[in-house]
Structure formats: structure tokens, C-alpha cells
Amino acid sequence: MFTGVTCEKTIDYSQDVQPRTNESVDDYSKYPSPSPGLYFSDPTWVDQQLQIYYENRTGKFSRHQESDELFMTETGPDTQAYLSGTTVAFLSLRRLTNEYQKIIASAKKTDLAKALPAGTDRTILEGYKAQQAAILADYGSPDTGVHELAFAGGETVALVVLKPLSRGSILINSSNPLDDPVFDYGTFQHPVDMQVAIAMYKKFRQFVAAEPWQAVGMRETKPGPS
């Protein structure tokens, strides 16, 4: 499961950057330069750096040999990839929340049959129970990540539930073999996934409040600190 948090940050490289047309406003007065945010905020800078590269293969960009992705560089090629995470954390449930034992206990009490479509075969339900037991063992481990936080220097931070307990389904709803099947992703059908997601957001807000991120002017703008 994937979600995103939009943040406001400030970066010190230009006084002429225009605000982007969304809920986040970037005035770039504190963030170190160059940063991945330049790709989206300063097309003039991008064009200038690309021209330098095309002319003499120097500057802040290089072209990856196996793709069209542009790689931002400080003094040479391939030091920081465009739109790849420059900061990523994989946290166990224990590190995500002090209430991890309550979350595990809540999951064990969940009627899994209610999290699956009506009429699901008994064998599928038994397999689902086995899957949950395996995942809950990971939930209790201090070393297994259940949450991913990825930040690439842009305005959005990705928050991911790595080990969701919800399960989707693909069902046939027609006798016509040419008809599409019925897809149901089943997102948040298991109530514990929402508990983990809430804990994930709370942990993210602790990160945002930390001095290193405050030093670059990070501020949550969507969904907002409520």
C-alpha cells in the first residue's frame, strides 16, 4: 500500500523560482543545491545544465548509458539519480510505534472471513490465516521492516505499508469468456492496516520535526498536521 505526504521545503539556490501549482509552495531558501527539486522548479537551470553537458560532457547532469534517465551530479556522473530516493528508511513495527503489541493482538482477534469476499472458499480462508500468522511473526520482529519512508528531495514523501494484511480478489462475473474479470484490491479491508498506516503517519511527523529536516525548512502541507 502506498500513500504520499506533500511537504513544503525551502532551498537556497535561486530567488526567481515560481510557486508550483499545487498545495505545496517551494521558495527554496534553505535546501542545499543542487537537489532533485530543481527538475520541477527551475526549467531554465535544467536547460542550462543540459546544454553544458551536451557541449562538453561536464556540468550537473549526465546521460545514463542504458536509459533516458537524467542523473544529477555534483562533480561527475551518477551521484544522484533523478526521482530515485536519496533518503529511505525501512522500520519495523516495534520502531514504528510503542503500541505494536496491541496492533498484533488486534490482528489476531480479527475475523478474517469478513475481510474476504462473501462465499470465499474455505481453503483460501485457511491459506489467508496462514499468511497472517507469518506476517504477524514479522510484525513482532525488531529486524523486519513493515514501513517504508522514501524521500527524493522533491515535494512528496512516499509512505508505504510493506506488509499489509488485506487481500484483494479477482473474480469471474460472466459466462462470456471475453468479459473482463472483476478486480477488487481490498485496500484496508483488514482493520489493522489502517492502524499501521496511522502509526506510519505519526512517525513521519516525528521525522519532519527533527532538526535536520527543520534545517531545510520541511513542513507538511498535505494532508496537513491535523
SS strand fraction:
15-25%
- Spatial strand order of the main sheet: 5-6-7-1-10
- Nearest-integer average pLDDT: 75
Biggest sheet: strands, sense, closure? 5 strands, antiparallel
Taking all Cα atoms into account, the compactness measure Rg is 22 Å
H/E order of the elements? EHHEEEEHHHEEEEHHE
Poorly predicted runs of 5 or more residues = 4-29, 63-83
Care to describe what's here?
By secondary structure, the protein is α+β, with helices and mostly antiparallel strands. The protein is built from 7 helices and 10 strands. The chain has helices at residues 38-41, 43-56, 93-96, 100-109, 122-139, 191-209, 211-214; strands at residues 2-8, 61-63, 70-72, 80-81, 87-91, 147-151, 156-161, 169-171, 182-184, 219-222. The strands form 3 sheets. The chain has a 5-stranded antiparallel β-sheet with strand order 5-6-7-1-10. Strands 2-3-4 form a 3-stranded antiparallel β-sheet. A two-stranded antiparallel ribbon has the order 8-9. A hairpin with a 7-residue loop joins strand 3 (70-72) and strand 4 (80-81). It is extended.
